[in-house]
């Protein structure tokens, strides 16, 4: 598969202190890649290096094969992005803002490109109104439209849903996924909203103390292989006796039982055979938040142990 971004053993030093430790990963067309990490983990530094705002101390960042360090202009022309909130001319309409931004490009864009990006982000009905009357969600969408004007291969979004209400968050999420697929670009998203990242992203990279500790498909991170199921069955004491060889926890509406997915049919059959009435068996999947907190806590413990030696 074609690679849009290749990050190769990238390090960043400030003075004698190394704050990014040999990060390597790749981004592909049509995918939404989530970048997660606690405050101070190195997310912003990594983003700034990807757009050339901070120099790479060692290693390479290639965008469509062009190095951000040695071939900056060719590399950055393939990048669009919003770092925090987009800034617009509030006294102009959304359409006028896009036309103004269009004039900054050295190469003339196709005449229909503004209309294409307006449609992509769903602003057709409000694009000719002044930006000062836009909601935060509409300004975010206009910012994304602006970042898409030159048909970038890479779209970088830092906290794209920051400050939005639930309806606005869902709206932005849907547009981000749609843009990635329809424009076949790689979308790199940094956010602290773990539930949204779980719904939005195809893959997740987790950074901790400047180390990229894991990169996985989102579905892999939320599916540990072992499954807890909520079992609502009666009589409860007899159920507990039959499950004495398994891990379980009693809760208000039944038992939470640890079982592999392929063990569930045999487990249900076993209970039924002993005249147990089964009312509900509901899988309880691990969330991205569970995985994130587990991994970062484990890595922080290992980091603290190493640093203390």
TrEMBL record:
This is ABC transporter ATP-binding protein. The keyword Lyase does not apply. Keywords: ATP-binding, Nucleotide-binding, Transport. Belongs to the ABC transporter superfamily. It comes from Jeotgalibacillus salarius. One of its GO terms (molecular function) is ATP hydrolysis activity. InterPro entries: AAA+_ATPase, ABC_transporter-like_ATP-bd, ABC_transporter-like_CS, P-loop_NTPase. It comes from the Bacteria.
């Amino acid at each position: 598969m074609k690679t849009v971004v290749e990050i190769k053993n990238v390090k960043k030093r400030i003075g004698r202190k190394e704050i990014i430790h040999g990060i390597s990963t790749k981004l592909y067309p049509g995918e939404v890649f989530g970048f997660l990490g606690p405050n101070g983990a190195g997310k912003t530094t990594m983003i700034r290096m990807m757009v050339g705002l901070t120099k790479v101390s060692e290693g390479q960042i290639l965008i469509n094969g062009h190095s951000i360090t040695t071939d900056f202009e060719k590399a950055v022309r393939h990048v669009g992005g919003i770092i925090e909130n987009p800034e617009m001319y509030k006294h102009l309409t959304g359409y006028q803002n896009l036309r103004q931004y269009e004039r900054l490009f050295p190469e003339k864009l196709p005449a229909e490109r503004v209309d294409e990006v307006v449609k992509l982000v769903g602003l057709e009905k409000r694009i000719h109104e002044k930006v000062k009357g836009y909601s935060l969600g509409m300004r975010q969408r206009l910012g994304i439209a602006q970042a898409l004007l030159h048909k970038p291969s890479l779209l970088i979004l830092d906290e794209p849903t920051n400050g939005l209400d639930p309806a606005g968050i869902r709206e932005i999420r849907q547009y981000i996924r749609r843009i990635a697929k329809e424009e076949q670009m790689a979308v790199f998203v940094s956010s602290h909203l773990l539930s949204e990242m779980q719904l939005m992203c195809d893959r997740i990279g987790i950074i901790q103390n400047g180390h990229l500790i894991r990169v996985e498909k989102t579905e892999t991170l939320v599916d540990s292989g072992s499954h807890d199921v909520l079992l609502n069955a009666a009589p409860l004491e007899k159920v507990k006796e039959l499950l004495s060889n398994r891990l379980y926890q009693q809760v208000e509406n039944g038992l939470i039982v640890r079982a592999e997915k392929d063990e569930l049919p045999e487990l249900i059959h076993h209970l039924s055979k002993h005249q147990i009435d089964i009312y509900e068996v509901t899988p309880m999947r691990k969330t991205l938040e569970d995985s994130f907190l587990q991994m970062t806590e484990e890595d922080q413990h290992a980091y603290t142990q190493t640093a203390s030696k």
